[in-house]
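Co-fold these.
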Amino acid sequence: MHQSELFSKASREAPSDEVSVNAKLLSRAGFIDKLMAGAYSYLPLGLRVLKNIENIIRTEMNELGGQEVLLPSLQPKENWEATGRWKDPGREVMFQLKGRGDREYGLGWTHEEIVTPLAKKFISSYKDLPRAVYQIQTKFRDEPRAKSGLLRGREFIMKDLYSFHTDEQDLIKFYDKARVAYSRIFKSVGLNALQVEASGGAFSKYSHEFQVVTPAGEDIVIRCEVCDFAQNREISEVEGGGACPRCGKKVTAERAIEVGNIFQLKDRFSQAFRLTYKDETGKDHPVLMGCYGIGLTRVLGAVVEVHHDEHGIIWPEAVAPFQAHLIALQNVKSVRAGTDKAYGTLQKEGIEVLYDDRLESSAGEKLTDADLIGIPLRLVVSEKTIAAQSIEVKARAEKNTELIKFQDLGKYFKTRKKIYVE
Amino acid sequence: MHQSELFSKASREAPSDEVSVNAKLLSRAGFIDKLMAGAYSYLPLGLRVLKNIENIIRTEMNELGGQEVLLPSLQPKENWEATGRWKDPGREVMFQLKGRGDREYGLGWTHEEIVTPLAKKFISSYKDLPRAVYQIQTKFRDEPRAKSGLLRGREFIMKDLYSFHTDEQDLIKFYDKARVAYSRIFKSVGLNALQVEASGGAFSKYSHEFQVVTPAGEDIVIRCEVCDFAQNREISEVEGGGACPRCGKKVTAERAIEVGNIFQLKDRFSQAFRLTYKDETGKDHPVLMGCYGIGLTRVLGAVVEVHHDEHGIIWPEAVAPFQAHLIALQNVKSVRAGTDKAYGTLQKEGIEVLYDDRLESSAGEKLTDADLIGIPLRLVVSEKTIAAQSIEVKARAEKNTELIKFQDLGKYFKTRKKIYVE
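Predicted complex below.
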């Protein structure tokens, strides 16, 4: 894509009302635009990253045996009254509204109240189990504080998967597979997410949260410096500096962003909607459920919190909006012609490239914008490189550059090693 | 995918509260599920069709030069007050709600109020024009009647594109390109959509609607039996049976479904938000806008209204949930083994197959369900075909069948002609 035609423009200054690193950098670089506190527009660059994250998650959910669905956001009051959640937590969390004829609706912040009665239409026998469905969908929450950019939105995108089982053993088997899938997802998008024990509600001892340790986090994680003990401070009986209850070594308290959680719901919702199955003898039992969430827009924000420097964002390759940023450094005929040619070669190789072809920007502006936008691989054509029939290749995160002959550009992309992301 | 594991199940009976053909067939076949009037869940089969429609539309929008974005559904009152639409049409159309601190929001039923101030952040010079952005996104409308299944939803999915231009000539040039793209989209999804003149509002003589003639339609189209004159009855000066104002021949009045519309907004919204650009001499002008909508969920409903028979849906190949429906007719070891082998071959060829492997369904049930689900190509393995080392191939819409040797199955898919859809 030609950068001169891109809908967004990078900006020198962050919006004055943003405090979080993710919102400042993503806004300045033209990935998102704030409509109001907690609601952002995803601009072409931002949507490309979001779709990369989405595809990584979708692949893993399909692999788990999840079937993709799409459930409504506009939900009838009746479903939420069946579980008591219309009143508690009620408006503390949920946007509630009245339409024509004073009909009452809520905007979905989770979908147990929709997916459980839906599953009841298709599940009646042990032969119909196990099942798992998921969606990637917009959710709404009336957050009291919405000041952390994409980390806490009033409107945000989630993947939520719901699983259905005959018994606890089958639920736990699936739950453990989901834990592994989650670890792979976070690693793929460039996040080092800890598995942290958290409150299991009334029905389970623990749930598990996936927490990314970073100063921008709103949660506190207590974890052992030696073993794999890690708990959300909300449930932990030990404080930072104390002794690990598992191995006795020291635990630390650190800020972290919760990017996913998994939860054994057991029969909390199947009881409310009488979702049962008949076993081989014809006896009825409640279906046991699990739920598994990942906040996609929060993951996007967390990636930026973790992967940036003083100049801008540094995207992990798997989620970067483009694979390479091609820059015609000077507005000189030979440089333009050389960069056009390189662009043609890259397109033929199927490499997704943002081509900075802007005529009126200085070399300095182009490099500053490229630092801000953060595409992991940069290809610069300048009068100097043209003289050597070459293109300068530089990883966003590194100082070193490499000269590649124009004729070797296609081969370079076929054989190069992916940039390492910790 | 193995049909025995599919989340949904086909049902003999339509939900008692559905009157439209599209909702009855799509519900019975397990593509959608009604949560309440005007709000449906898209089940795995339905979502697959929706994604096929989405990809056809996305390809054409990118080809037009559109850049994909995603704008919020939850929108501040202030933006809608700027154009007067908070009050008029106001609650007639829009769900309006209050959140914490009595802050007022509306749920987006269109996005001019969001995209115009957004464009103002990036467009200031003639050099920034033209531009076009689009989204594929969930919209909300507080419809008084929501009884036509997917044809009129309170929550529905739309593609809306907005274009920005320096002058009317440039706007019209883009508008005409969009008309051609729309015609291609509807043809691709299997709809014969007329281009119909409709009200242009206060600023243009006409807008254009894309109307699919079918008894289920809620609009009336007046069209000439000979020339290409076609108008929405709302603006037409001639009645059905009258003389065509263009060629003098007879016009008819027919019911039709509006699946898309395109509209020259000109400066209606750029004036409200002071979206202007500087020309080469530094003089300010309002940016001229166009908007271009397609209802994806409505398209899905319209396809079913047009493509069905007394037994069920007949999907056009381009949008079908699977390319082929493979059926193991009898629950006999040789048939099961033969069908498993065929399934393996088809998967290796990259053919998307729904494999009816259900052990407890009779041959009759399987064929009845296949008729209802409507995958355009059916592959049946039975004791009879096994004896001939073959598989029976049948187009959903036709009576004739063809026997293909197991060993020729891969070749058949490489060379077969696509099923024709009018």
